[in-house]
Amino acid sequence: MSTPRPLTLIVNGEPRALQVEPRTTLLDALRERLDLTGTKKGCDHGQCGACTLHVDGERVLACLTLAQQAEGRRITTIEGLAGPDGTLHAVQKAFLAEDAFQCGYCTPGQIMSAVACIREGHAGSAAEIREFMAGNLCRCGAYPHIVAAVQRAARALEQETLA
User: Disulfide engineering: 100 pairs with which of 10, 45, 126, 149, CB 3.0-4.6 Å?
Assistant: First the structure.
């Protein structure tokens, strides 16, 4: 057992101090130490995308990232995606409108990847969305609805920008 070390993570805009062993993953630190359970543990091998979140605006698999690697960086989890007043992000609204989930287990990771997909300019076509989102698996097979949700959110965010 390694000795826990102090660590400060900036999670959803708030500095959070904790003590973790050096080998603790970001996923485990968030779920087990900070009670942020929206980010899911699926395969724990970086193959399913359930643990997708953003670190400094970039899509990251939290199960493959050590908590220490994220020290001082801006972490956004699914809990921090909505506005401060609780207004859902356009992607969250689109997932609801398009019924882009069934069991919901993969949904937080899907949404976080969808936000990155749109932000990085990969929502031009259904094929492009499917390619970008390929790292996020859905055992229920809601893929057509997920693609539709990403397209809807991309249109909504583009209209917001133009307004």
Answer: 149
